[in-house]
Amino acid sequence: MRLLPIFLAAAVLAACSPQAGNASSSGAASQAEGTRHPVSGLEVIPLTITHDGASHAFRVEVARSEAEQAKGLMFRTGMGADEGMIFPREPAAPAAFWMKNTVIPLDIIFIGSDGRITNIEANAEPYSLTPRLSQGAAAAVLELNGGRAAELGIGPGDSVAW
């Protein structure tokens, strides 16, 4: 009986080992981890912007809570070309974003209730406290790397789906 606790502890340690388990269980773990961003811990979802019949796919972090939205991309030093962050807003309302503590330039894309881009504040300057305003009510705000929208020809009226 005295060996039972030792045996159980060894079994638990073996189960936690990176080599433990088969390929299918480690693949499932990788897929589960793939839905969370490694830096922010936020859920990552697919997002598509359609421009003149052509679509461009992104993987974006979702900032849902007030705290997540307040932090946004502050202190981040880089982001992939097809990555971004979306800020859903319920209900849709006029929005103002700033770049306080934001290290990288961003395109701030305002999305109306109809899922179309209303306006873009391109290449917002890092650390700027200047408010970047939506033109009308925003149902969501999308942040991409600065200059990415122009590079892809994305503009007002384009459709955004997530």
Describe this protein's structure:
This protein is 22% helix and 39% strand. With 162 residues, the chain is an alpha+beta fold. It folds into two domains: 1-33, no CATH class; 41-161, Protein of unknown function DUF192 (Jelly Rolls, Sandwich). A seven-stranded mixed β-sheet has the order 5-4-6-3-2-1-7. The longest helix has 14 residues, at 3-16. The protein is globular and about 35 Å long. The relative contact order is 0.17. Residues 1-33 have low confidence and may be disordered.
Essential attributes:
7-stranded mixed beta sheet, disordered N terminus, 4 helices, 22% helix, globular, 2 domains, alpha+beta, 7 strands, Jelly Rolls, single chain, 162 residues
Explain the layout of strands and helices.
Elements: H1 3-16, H2 23-33, E1 44-51, E2 54-62, H3 66-71, E3 83-97, E4 106-111, E5 117-124, E6 132-145, H4 148-152, E7 159-161
Parallel strand pairs: 2-3
Antiparallel strand pairs: 1-2, 1-7, 3-6, 4-5, 4-6
Structure summarized in a few sentences:
This protein has 4 helices and 7 strands. The protein is an alpha+beta fold and 162 residues long.
Given as residue ranges, the uncertain stretches (5+ residues, pLDDT < 50) are 1-33
What about the largest sheet?
7 strands, mixed
User: What is the N-to-C succession of helices and strands?
Assistant: HHEEHEEEEHE
Record field, number of beta strands: 7
Number of domains: 2
Share of helical residues: 10-25%
Task: Write down the overall geometry.
Answer: globular
Strands across the major sheet, in which order?
Answer: 5-4-6-3-2-1-7
Assign the CATH class of the largest domain. Mainly Beta
How big a fraction of the residues is strand? Answer: 35-45%
CATH architecture of the largest domain: Sandwich
How far the N terminus sits from the C terminus, by CA atoms, comes to: 56 Å
CATH fourth-tier homologous superfamily of the largest domain: Protein of unknown function DUF192
**What fold name goes in the CATH topology slot of the largest domain?**
Jelly Rolls
Oligomer: single chain
Task: Compute the average pLDDT.
Answer: 84
Q: What Rg do the Cα atoms give?
A: 21 Å
Structural class: alpha+beta
Helix count, DSSP H or I runs of 4 or more residues: 4
